[in-house]
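Standup notes
- HV: blocked on the assembly model, inputs below
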Amino acid sequence: QVQLVESGGNVVQPGGSLRLSCIVSGFDFSRFGMHWVRQAPGKGLDWVAFIRPDASDRAYVGSVKGRFTISRDNSKNTLYLQMDNLRPEDTAMYYCAKESLSPWDHWGQGTSVTVSS
Amino acid sequence: HSVLTQPPSASGTPGQRVTISCSGSSSDIGSSAVNWFQQFPGSAPKSLIYNTDERPSGVPDRFSGSKSGTSASLAISALQSEDEADYYCAAWDDRLNGWVLGGGTRLTVL
């Protein structure tokens, strides 16, 4: 079955960096677009970034442009989110999600990022 | 501040039909399909409706979606206690060139 497992979340100081990973199984990773979606504590969902199956195109929400980079390694079935210059408002649970019929067809369980001094 | 507007809460009694609205603009709902997601506390969201009115495999037909102009709705018929959850709408925004979501609606089954 489809599985997505995020990792890499941590507590980091403002201005710091983190790299999140999402290892997938149960489907042909190289054929599907992938997203990162986040949820601040007690708040709603926010889309963060998208990458095409062959990484030929990427898109970001305005608040992370220039600070976050989405990438993928199809040989390793792994999606990444490099987060630089982190801000307290980036504190959230970060989910990776597979795109298919729905933009977010299957979701991982999330990895927690806390930005605090 | 979410781009799409949902009521923060909704409620109904078992067996009742409830609807949750999602209001947007010409650049999002007005020009693209609407998707709905269900999330239980402490869990990851789940796809509930895609392409405005289609259900993924395994989603009961008690759940239905519709759209008119720049507004969309999620209807849940024959409400059950296990439907108590948060519901989110989402759509592609042509102006922002990204996905936008509603702030979520917490459904309570009384």
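- HV (later): unblocked. Chain B has a mean pLDDT of 96. DSSP finds no helices and nine strands in chain B.
- Next: hand off to the docking folks.
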